[in-house]
Every structure is written in structure tokens, then in C-alpha cells.
Amino acid sequence: MTFTKITEEASKYEHLEKMSVHELLININKEDKTVPDAVERALPQIEALVAQVVTKLKLGGRLFYIGAGTSGRLGIVDASECPPTFGVPFDLVNGIIAGGDKAIRRAVENAEDNATQAWIDLQAHKIGANDVVIGIAASGTTPYVIGGLETCNQKNIITGCITCNQGSPLALTAQFPIEVVVGPEFVTGSSRMKAGTAQKLVLNMISTATMIQLGKVKGNKMVDMQLSNIKLVDRGVKMIMGEIPVSYEEASELLKKYGSVRNAVDNYISKRIL
Questions:
Q1: Which residues are catalytic?
Q2: Taking Cα atoms as reference points, which of 246, 209, 252, 218 lies closest to residue 53?
Q3: For residue 157, is pLDDT > 80?
């Protein structure tokens, strides 16, 4: 199969340095508008991978994202936001970046070129057959990510990927590939732009759809969210008021007593029934 790295093709725009700020913003925005359409075309692939993630997590498994550079950072962002948003354990969704945590802020030279390190990094988490590993790489050619998925396949661990080139080595390696082809970047090769946006949208879909399927949302509310600041406590109190006939003060006391919106509402209802 012929593989064309569309993410590296020349921008449709020339002489960017001669554009005014207004022209730059208009044109960047014009390109960004194409990203949701590209994600929509990949929805069947996303659905297939989410189904696998849900099945494995219901069996006690975990979800791992592995990537390098922007892709790795996006995986870490999504993973780190699952516990406060959905009240799940911190090790249920995990983000791993080539070069380790120091690479979150600063690039680690040649880290993405090590094809064996990802499996070593995954082993540190005692990865097993009930887990799912999703490799994230805009180019679809990152050795760190491909090598990690290859070993996971050998170990009978479900693998998926998010890439922005069709028919890439990564997509051919993953059991459940997601290919979101967004086309050339506004700045040639700068895959932190449209490709990064596409990856973020897909990650939002994977984690959110999974958590809803696991019962972490009721109606449209984050009933298990962590009450880690004043804003979230206030939101929790108002959620309770929307579910049961209590005042703000009563809802606040229930939330303080039971620790979550779900527990507060469930305990209130069960006592009323009794």
C-alpha cells in the first residue's frame, strides 16, 4: 500500500510572513473549520474502538495513551482530567509520553525514535490483557508508538490508534485504527495545529463516551465529579437541587455529608422511600 504523509505536505497558503494579523487569523480559522468534518468521517472507527475500551474497563481493565510530543501531551491532558471529571481512580486512564514526564514541558531529543521504550514504560504499570493501549501520532510513523503497539499485539492486549494520515504504519499496526485525515497544516508540517485539534476532539469522544457507558454521568450531569474547588462544590449543590426538592443550604449539607452528587441524591431518595 502506498503511504502518503499528508501531514507533511505543503500548506495551501504562501508567504505567511506577508499576511496581516487579520489575514493570518482568518485563514487559520478557515482551516480549523475543516477538522470536525474529518472527525465525522472517522466516527465508525471511533465507535469500534470505544466499544473495545468499554468492554475491557468493565472487566477491570485500564486505558493507556502513548505518544510523543504534542500527541503524547494531549493523551496526558485527557487522562489527567478523567478523575476530577468522572470521579474515577487516577490509574484508570493513563497518559504516557516518550521521554517521561519531563517531556511534558520540554522536548526530549530522540525519545520518539526509541521503538522499545514504550513497552518498558507500559510494563512499569503492570499492563495486562484486560487493558487497552491507544497510540497517538499525527504522522503515523513514530517508532516509540508503533513499537509499543507491536509488543502489545504480541501480548494479546487490545490496541488502537489516532493518526492523521491514511494507511500509515501505525494504522496498519493498531487493531482498531482511527484515521482523521485533516490535510496539510496552515504552517507546513506543524501538526500541533489541525492534527492536534483533531486528536483532542477524538480523545474527548473516547473518554467521555466511555465514562457515560460506565455510568459516570446521570442525565447530563457529572454526578461523580471530585469536589476540588468552590466552583465545583457550587455546581454540585445546584445539581442536587435539580434532582430533589431541597434548598441550597440543604443541598450543601447533603453534599458535605455524602461526598458526591450521586450519593447525596441516592441517600435522600432512599430515606424518603423508607
A1: 81, 112
A2: 209
A3: yes
Q: What count of Cα atoms within 13 Å lies in the side-chain half-sphere of residue 239?
A: 25
Cα angle, residue 127 at apex, residues 225 and 111 outer, rounded to 5°: 95
Let me know: does 83 contact 227? Beta carbons within 8 Å. no
Query: What is the distance between the terminal CA atoms of the chain, rounded to a whole angstrom?
Result: 66
Tell me what the mean pLDDT of segment 59-75 comes to: 97
Lowest mean pLDDT among 92-96, 193-197, 221-225: 221-225
pLDDT of 219 strictly over 80: yes
Interstrand relation of 132-136 and 176-179 (parallel, antiparallel or unpaired):
unpaired
pTM here is 0.93
> Which DSSP string corresponds to 56-95?
HHHTT--EEEEESHHHHHHHHHHHHHHHHHH---TTSEEE
